[in-house]
Amino acid sequence: MISTAEIHRDDETSKTGMWLFLFTEMLLFGGLFIVYSVYRYRNPVAFHFAAQELSVVIGTINTIILLVSSATIAMSITAIQKKNKKLALLLLGVTILLGLAFLVNKYFEWGEHFKEHIYPGSSVLALRGQGDVLFYGLYFFMTGLHALHIIIGLVFIIVIATSILRDKIDSENHVLLENSGLYWHLVDLIWIFLFPLFYLIT
Amino acid sequence: MAENEKNHIIPYRTFLYVLAGLIALTLTSVTLTQISLGTLTVVIALIIAAIKSSFVLRIFMHLKFENKMFSRAVIGVIALLCAVITITLLDYLNR
Amino acid sequence: MITQNSNEEPSYLDYKGKYKGIFGWILSTDHKRIGLLYLFSIMSFFVIGATIGLLMKFELIAPGKTIITAQTYNAFFTLHGIIMIFAVVIPGLPAVFGNFLLPIMIGAKDVAFPRLNLLSWYFYVTGVTLVLISQFTGQGPPDTGWTFYAPYSFRTTGNMLPAVFGAFVLGFSSILTGLNFLVTIHRLRAPGMTWLKMPLFPWTLYATGWVQLLATPIIGITLLMIAAERVLHIGFFDPTLGGDPLLYQHLFWTYSHPAVYIMILPAMGAISEIIPTFCHKTIFGYNFIVASSIAIAFVGYFIWGHHMFTSGMSGTALYTFSLLTFIVAIPSAIKVFNWISTMHKASIDLQTPFYWAVGFLFVFMIGGFSGLVLGSLATDIHLHNTHFVVAHFHFIVFGGTGYAFFGAMHYWYPKITGKMYDSRWANIGLIIFFTGFITLYGAMFFLGMKGMPRRYYDYDEIFHTGNIISSLGAMVMYFGLAVIIINLVASLKNGRKAPSDPWGGKTLEWTIPSPPPVENFNEIPVITKGPYNYK
User: Fold this and answer.
1) Residue C530 in domain
2) What string of DSSP letters covers C240-280?
3) What does residue C497 show for φ and ψ, rounded to 5 degrees?
4) Residue of A nearest to C12 (CA)
5) CATH top-level class for A56-200?
6) Number of domains present in the structure of chain C
7) CB contact, 8 Å: C254 with chain B?
8) CA–CA dist B90, A36 (Å, integer)
9) B69, B91, B93: best to mutate for the C interface, most C CBs within 10 A
């Protein structure tokens, strides 16, 4: 209602706000990394064997999918700066598809576990011992929260892509695209740590 | 400083090189961790993850080209998180 | 210092925008109106919380059941804690006075993200609503205390989920406010206002902003884990599934101790504004006060363990946390010395806000010293979970933040409302409030030392006298509060018109009319001198 709401655009301000928000995301997952460190320290053997049951192949594929999608969204910024709207949209489209592919993989991966009655609160899992309960509890909670962030990121990117389509974001005004990119990279960044912690350190 | 960096355009090939590097690091880390190296496995996996994330932060997230304030803040936040984990473990390692 | 605004510009109170009536407020993105939205909501919840507190003191006036059952008492101290901590003192000064004054004090027209600012108020209201819903739905209200300690928080039949989720949403609101302030301070300072020319209240808001930003996510994720524990039995804090309930305490206090600094830092900032104004003197040791704010925010992050001395931590952790706790007392003491030195040889104008500031110093020192008693390992074993702890944190949180809040209220009231209040009634209210406060919480120190546990609705006969004194104090304090609030509300109608600078303050807010015009400044001021220039 008040004209002060329409302060002239300041990209640096907008980007600073986004970075500060990313810090809160880092610490949100940071809290879970604390929990992970403690329980890994207390249950080294169980974590070791439980981690071996996760499919390294699917994990690696998903890691590469996210890395490629990060590169494509980063390149779309270059495209928009070079006034190449079509390429920017194409790259964003690829990013969205890769994000969806990640989720589909995750769906099948989780589905496999569910078939073996491995899920939080399952009595089969409880019989396998406390270390396994904690490992899978952390696994589902952390990858689940991460998947939720993927979904939020995808929605964010779709909104941005629509704005590009309507020329609301162009070579002069692309800070929102950069911000969506920052968010997506953060999601990637978290996966870069989740992947070795759950799949590799066997 | 921030003003002239705002229009910094990173060439496509930079991203492709970085991507290739990241994938190579991923595969290295997968390969190395399949060999049984004891506790070293954890260390190696985390070091590689740290290298990968520094690439993502510096190039993909443009930190290299932004105001230095952003990089400092990121380092500060990571240091803070590490400090909190260390202090929490002070309890668990000595209990 | 800068050009005076022309008086033709309508004040933010008279401004007619796109929306009329109540919508002109709840849809306004003007930082001043949002500040008042917060003021109104926070005061409402404060009165609710204080009333619950008073009812608890009525219950404690005699041993055994007096007016409420044990279960109701549990629900009461839980609700009292959640409301007072998450909905009153944490947002308190930043959301009300920070929102209203931060942009003005740094010479900006608004905060960096005005719409986000309004959104955070909506999160705030949603969060409190969820907490209140938890009282009236499900199988009875939450009864865990505001700390939601595991494993009880996921075993109790009380209706925890809405309360936990409400606290989560309140945390989100707090993060957004902190984020907004940080960006505002980084990007919107008036030309010439270098970091060390910034007034101290914005400085403390800056330090607070970082704590809000970096500590709150930890409680966010912890509360989500509690929810997951209740719904999915995920096992993180459940000893029967291998989890460690102590880890919950670690995570909870990793946020909730820094949260104490979210509460007290802006309070210290407000005091740092009031004291130089009424001493008509530059603040003593500006740089030290700034540095100590940063130091408090930083060290305050690493001392959470002193809430867990009797929980069974390792010895190494105990010593470390105790040492760090003592270290954090140093910057707080530096501030106190600087405030006292500012008063030294000053010609002090004895007005209501100054009395509040002095009251703050007095109760804050008592609270601080009792904190050292609790920070040392040996004495804490005796005093842990007694009324001594309750007295300590009420002296700090209510005595510190509350006194500063009312001090700020009386200091900036003319600026915010454009009216002067009746000083005589304000002072009378303060004296009654102060007497009640000292009686209420002072008695608790003695009760605690004798061993009366907290959160018990019943007690042994030997505690009876102390509890009678304490409960009487509660009634006096409640009455004093009523005098203060009624006086402020009545002055809205009866008060005479306030000049633009009633106290002789030198910071930017006193250079513009009271109440401020919509855009704050006709022309953005150019700053050439430090904030407290009384030469």
Assistant:
1) no
2) GGT--HHHHHHHHHHHHHHHHHHHHHHHHHHHHHHHHHHHT
3) -70, 140
4) A2
5) mainly alpha
6) 1
7) yes
8) 15
9) B91
CA distance to partner chain B, nearest, from residue C261 (Å): 17
Q: Tell me the nearest-neighbour CA distance from C147 into chain B, angstroms.
A: 19
pLDDT at B4 over 60: no
Whether residue C327 lies within 8 A of chain B, CB to CB, comes out as: no
Residues of chain B positioned with their CB less than 8 A from the CB of A56: 30, 34
With beta carbons less than 8 A apart as the criterion, state whether C229 and C154 touch. yes
Using the Cβ of C316 and the Cβ atoms of chain B, whether some distance falls under 8 Å is answered with yes
Residue C534 inside a domain? The answer is no
Report the SS3 class of residue A121. Answer: coil
Query: Tell me, what's the pLDDT at B5?
Result: 45
| pLDDT at C2 (0 to 100) | 41
- CB contacts of B93 in chain A (<8 Å) are 41
Cα torsion A119, A125, A130, A134 to 10°: value is -20
CA distance C432 to C435: 5
> Residue C96's domain spans which residues?
23-511
**Separation of alpha carbons A62 and A77, rounded Å:** 23
C257 inside 8 A of chain B by CB: no
Q: Is the CB of residue A185 less than 8 Å away from at least one CB of chain B?
A: yes
CA torsion sign for A16, A22, A26, A27 is positive
Q: How many residues does chain A have?
A: 202
pLDDT in tens, B31-84: 988 887 777 888 899 999 999 999 999 999 999 988 899 999 999 999 999 999
Paired tokens of C130: 């969820």
Determine the average pLDDT of the residues in C175-186.
97
Q: Which residue has the tokens 């939450």?
A: C142
Question: In 3D, which of A106, A89, A70, A109 has the Cα closest to residue A163?
Answer: A89
A16 contacts in chain B (CB < 8 Å): 70
Distance CA C211, CA C171 (A): 12
Contact (CB, 8 A) for A159 and C246? no
**Residues of chain A contacting B2 with CB distance shorter than 8 Å:** 12
Rounded-to-integer distance, Cα C272 and Cα C286, Å? 9
Name residue C517's beta-bridge partners.
C11
Provide the ipTM. Answer: 0.93
Beta-carbon separation of B91 and C302 below 8 A? no
Q: Cβ of C301 and B84 within 8 Å?
A: yes
Structure tokens belonging to residue C245: 């309930």
Q: How high is the pLDDT of residue A8?
A: 54
With CA atoms as reference, the chain B residue closest to A64 would be B23
**Is the Cβ–Cβ distance between A136 and C241 less than 8 Å?**
no
Q: Which among B83, B84, B94 is the nearest to C316, CB-wise?
A: B94
Q: Which chains touch B (3 or more CB pairs under 8 A)?
A: A, C
C133, amino acid identity: I
CA distance to partner chain B, nearest, from residue C250 (Å): 7
**Residues in Cβ contact with C489 at an 8 Å cutoff, skipping those fewer than 6 apart:** none
In sequence order, the β-bridge partners of residue C419 are C497
Is A44 in the B-facing interface, judged by CB distances under 8 Å?
A: no
Q: How many contacts does A have with B, using Cβ atoms within 8 A?
A: 112
Which pTM does this prediction carry? 0.94
Q: What is the DSSP string of B24-90?
A: HHHHHHHHHHHS--TTHHHHHHHHHHHHHHHHIIIIIT-GGGS-HHHHHHHHHHHHHHHHHHHHHHH
Residue C248 inside a domain? The answer is: yes
Burial of A8 (0-12, 13-18, 19+ CB in 10 A): exposed
Q: Answer whether A75's CB lies under 8 Å from B15's CB.
A: yes
- CB-side exposure of A31: number of CA atoms within 13 Å? 30
Phi and psi at residue C530, to the nearest 5°? -65, 170
Coil, helix or strand at residue C419? strand
Instruction: Determine the 3-state secondary structure of A171 from DSSP.
Output: coil
